[in-house]
């Protein structure tokens, strides 16, 4: 009987260690899943800036049309400023997907062993 009791104690100790190990890996997996979810939310939020760029381009074009309608003699100068406005707004529109790709693919969330 004593031998069986000792064997059961050893088995219980091993199983407790395994349970602790499993609990730790569950915590790590849940943290990794949370990081993956946060990365997806961040990438989605970064692409929202594309909508802002579209609105900005619309405002630049609208302002160009209004300024040419008010003063046609300054159409060439206004067009130069409009092109500058388009370029700056387009730069923001290019930075948004770049940040989304950086968040999605460059920032690693896996744990190195």
UniProtKB/TrEMBL annotation:
Its main location: mitochondrion. InterPro entries: ATP_synth_F0_csu, ATP_synth_F0_csu_DDCD_BS, ATP_synth_F0_csu_sf, ATPase_proteolipid_c-like_dom, F/V-ATP_Csub_sf. This protein is one of the chains of the nonenzymatic membrane component (F0) of mitochondrial ATPase. GO terms for biological process: proton motive force-driven ATP synthesis. It is found in: Mitochondrion membrane. The keyword Ion transport applies. F-type ATPases have 2 components, CF(1) - the catalytic core - and CF(0) - the membrane proton channel. CF(1) has five subunits: alpha(3), beta(3), gamma(1), delta(1), epsilon(1). CF(0) has three main subunits: a, b and c. CDD domains: ATP-synt_Fo_c_ATP5G3. HAMAP family: ATP_synth_c_bact. It is a multi-pass membrane protein. Keywords: ATP-binding, CF(0), Hydrogen ion transport, Ion transport, Lipid-binding, Membrane, Mitochondrion, Nucleotide-binding, Transmembrane, Transmembrane helix, Transport. The chain crosses the membrane at residues 41-61, 81-107. Signal peptide: none annotated. This is ATP synthase subunit 9, mitochondrial. Residues 41-103 form the V-ATPase proteolipid subunit C-like domain. GO terms for molecular function: ATP binding; lipid binding; proton transmembrane transporter activity. One of its GO terms (cellular component) is proton-transporting ATP synthase complex. It comes from the Eukaryota. Belongs to the ATPase C chain family. Gene3D superfamilies: F1F0 ATP synthase subunit C.
């Amino acid at each position: 009987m004593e031998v069986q009791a000792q064997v059961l104690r050893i088995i219980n100790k091993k199983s407790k260690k395994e349970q602790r190990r499993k609990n730790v890996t569950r915590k790590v997996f849940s943290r990794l899943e949370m990081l993956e979810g946060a990365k997806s939310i961040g990438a989605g939020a970064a692409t929202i800036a594309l909508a802002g760029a579209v609105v900005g381009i619309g405002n630049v074009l609208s302002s160009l049309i209004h300024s040419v309608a008010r003063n046609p003699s300054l159409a060439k100068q206004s067009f130069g400023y409009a092109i500058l406005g388009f370029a700056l707004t387009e730069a923001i529109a290019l930075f948004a997907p770049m940040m989304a790709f950086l968040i999605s693919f460059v920032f690693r969330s896996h744990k190195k062993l």
